[in-house]
Amino acid sequence: MTGNNPTELTDFQRDRIDAALRAALEAKGFTFVDKTADADLLLSWHLNLMDKTDVKTYNSPSYGASVGYSRYNR
User: Fold this and answer.
1) pLDDT tens across 1-25, in order?
2) pLDDT tens track for 19-72
3) Distance from C-alpha of 9 to C-alpha of 47, rounded to nearest angstrom
C-alpha cells in the first residue's frame, strides 16, 4: 500500500477484498498469473470510506408516570 492512507486496513480486510475481486474476475473468465511480466492486465483498487451519522427518533407517549411499561412502543 502506498501513499497517505488515513484508514489503515488490516491484512485480513485487504485479503478479503483481494479474494472477492479475484473470485468476481475468475467468474468472468480471467485467469491469474504469478509474474506481472506475464500479465495482460494489472488491477489496482482504491477504497473510499465516508462517515455517516445515523439518527433515530423514538416517539414514546405515555399516560403519566409508569414503571417500565407503557401502552406504546412495546
Assistant:
1) 455 555 677 888 889 999 999 999 9
2) 999 999 999 999 999 898 999 999 888 887 777 777 777 666 655 555 555 555
3) 10
Sign of torsion, CA 30 36 39 43?
A: positive
SS (H, E, C) the chain: CCCCCCCCCCHHHHHHHHHHHHHHHHHCCCCCCCCHHHCCCCCCCCCCCCCCCCCCCCCCCCCCCCCCCCCCCC
Contacting residues for 39 by C-beta, under 8 A, at least 6 apart? 33
| Rounded Cα gap, residues 45 and 3, in angstroms | 13
Give the Cα separation of 69 and 18 in Å (integer).
50
